[in-house]
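ENTRY TYPE: paired fold submission
RECORD: A
CONTENT: sequence, then structure tokens
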Amino acid sequence: MSGEMLRPAVGENEAPFWEAAAKGELRIQQCASCERLRFPPRPMCPRCQSTESTWAVMSGRGTIYSFVVPHPPLLPQFNDLAPYNVILVTLEEDPTIRLIGNLVDRVGDPINAVDPKSIELEQPVRVVFEKINEEIHMPRWIRC
């Protein structure tokens, strides 16, 4: 890859997500009052306005809801990898929770390793985590 990989912003609200990912767990913020899952994480529940939350462990299973295949021109960090896939996954526990990532065949594969023609909507997937550095373990998805 040309240049350094773009890294996610990790603030107070996002830190528990990345801490869990570093342990190989997919955790989603959950309202401690109404128990609704919410992603991206935020300080207040959009349903009941509670500011209390927990982090629920998810199964890591979901389905492909949508996908795109970016082509150049792109940010310089991704030019060498294009074209590559970006998938939107709905979680098994709550289909309103959607996470973005890349479909790979195994941990460590580049994000352009899967032939985009082989990707289908509603394919079952499960999360894996790729270590980027000590703080960031990036969620990737593999077919079940």
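RECORD: B
CONTENT: sequence, then structure tokens
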Amino acid sequence: MFQEFKKFIMRGNVLDLAIGVIIGGAFGAIVKSLVDDVIMPPIGLLLGRVDFANLFAVLKGGDPGVPYATLADAQAAGAVTINYGLFINTVISFLITALAIFLIIRAANKLQKQEPPPPPAAPTTKDCPYCFTSIAIQATRCPNCTSELGEA
């Protein structure tokens, strides 16, 4: 059973899938950092010092009551919130990831693009119109039926 499992796990597509999942997880962390640490702060600054991670709506207040300065304060108080700022960050992360995957697949497809097949070679034989045997294309007389074929 161990040998069978080893054979299964060492198949190329299983290893490719495992590598893809690991790289995908690492890539996701990079994109999340890009969105949270690089893209969203300037956008928040342009929109009047808004921190998207702290955009939320309170559905039901918690122990010390509303208003809450941050999402962490609301969650600590036990308030029920809709965290639309985190959702915006997640959507932007998804769009960046989708764009990156699109660009990678597009580049891979260009690399794998097959060259068009070469044009067919010029024919070297033709059929005699009288006896229908195959003869050299330059022939002016058929070697089988001796008919004159005209100019080549």
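NOTES ON RECORD B: The beta strands are 57-60, 80-82, 125-127, 134-136. Residues 27 and 97 are 8 Å apart (CA to CA).
STATUS: closed
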